[in-house]
C-alpha cells in the first residue's frame, strides 16, 4: 500500500473516531443563518455531511483522472506500437534494398575481378615477353662486346694494330 493511501485512510479513520467520540456535540442544535432565513439544525452533522460530500466528490474526481490517464496511456501505446511496426517495416525494406545493392555490387566486383585478373595476367605476359627480349638483347650486346675484346686481344697478340672504335 502506498504511503499516501495509508495516510488518507488514517486521516479518515481519525475523523470517524472523532465524530463517534463527540456525537452528542455534533447533534447539538444551533441556529444557522442561510442569508435569507435562519434555521435550527445540528451544525456538526451538517459539517460532517459536507466533509463526506467533498470526500466523495474528490474520490469521483480521482477515479475520473485515473480513467482518463489509463485511456490516454492505452491510446499512446497503440500509436507507439503502430509507429514501431511502421519503423520495423521501413527498416526491413531498407535492409532488403541494402542486401540487393550489396549482392549486385559483389557480382559486379566479381566480374571486374575476373576482368582485372585477365588484364593483369595479360600485362604480366607482356612484361615477361619484354623482359625476356631485353635480357636476350643484353646477352647479345655483351656477346658482341666480348667478341670485340677477343678480336682486339687476338690482334694485339699477333702484332696487329687494334682497330679503332
UniProtKB/TrEMBL annotation:
<keyword id="KW-1133">Transmembrane helix</keyword>
<feature type="transmembrane region" description="Helical">
    <location>
        <begin position="43"/>
        <end position="65"/>
    </location>
</feature>
<keyword id="KW-0472">Membrane</keyword>
<protein>
    <recommendedName>
        <fullName>Signal transduction histidine kinase</fullName>
    </recommendedName>
</protein>
<keyword id="KW-0812">Transmembrane</keyword>
